[in-house]
Design goal:
Elements lengths: L16 E5 L2 E14 L6 E12 L15 H11 L7 E6 L7 E7 L2 E9 L5 E2 L20 E7 L2 E2 L1 H22 L28 E2 L3 E6 L5 E2 L7 H23 L18
Parallel strand pairs: 3-4, 8-11, 9-12
Antiparallel strand pairs: 1-2, 2-3, 2-11, 5-6, 6-8, 7-10
Amino acid sequence: MFNNPYEAPQELATGGHVTKELSSVTVHFDDIHYALSSGQLNGGYHHTLAVRNQQLTYQIETEKDLPGGSVANYLAQEFEQIDIPVHFSTALLTSATMNLHAYAKVEEHDTIVETIVTAGYEKTAHRAGTGYCYEERDGAFVTPGTINILVFTNKALTDSAMVKAIMTITEAKSAALQDWGVESVRLYPFINEDIPEAITKERKTSATGTSTDGIILTIDTNGDVLTDAGSFSLFGDTLAKAVYVGIQRALENAIGAESEPPVKRVVCSRAISP
């Protein structure tokens, strides 16, 4: 049994309650929070009482094979099972193993940022712009493994600052992957021949993420309102550090776990139209 040195606590310093199960990590709140989510269930800006990182533990050909026929419906059913209002929830889906998640907390003055990260990357690490596996048509696409990042803070942010925070999170994620030496996989059958040679599949390139990374940023609407989350700001720097440390710890867990189950391979193909 893998002993996770970076396991999330039961209570977050920013106020969330953490429930860790075999195939999920859920954080729920006593009052309504505000989130910006890339998840397919209530994605975008949304008021929320709970956020979740959900592992898909079996292989599917398309999302139509999921219970409910879609990622959103599948995630909604998972929330219904734990009696959390679906309309006040959002979630990410991954094939990464939940017991390998990593928690990080960074504090600077009165600013707190916490992250819970899973890192499934070996078969899907990708440098943006080096090629693609599929083209979405009529809503049909492939969902492979991911780096999923749950972010929590005791601060409130304006909507524009939340977008800026997503940019800072992404920059920190890319920095963590590059400093870890993660290379982009070269499995992409569709390459634009007009792009510069420096970013083609013929060269070894560091990954900037995986092909389907997810982020949920949750803020405390009762906190101090901030209008900037760039890396020069105190908040942005604290945010970047929490993301960087969380990802590095998740990578350490993923590599160091001898009992980690095999990662399911994703075959690159064109999108399957209904």
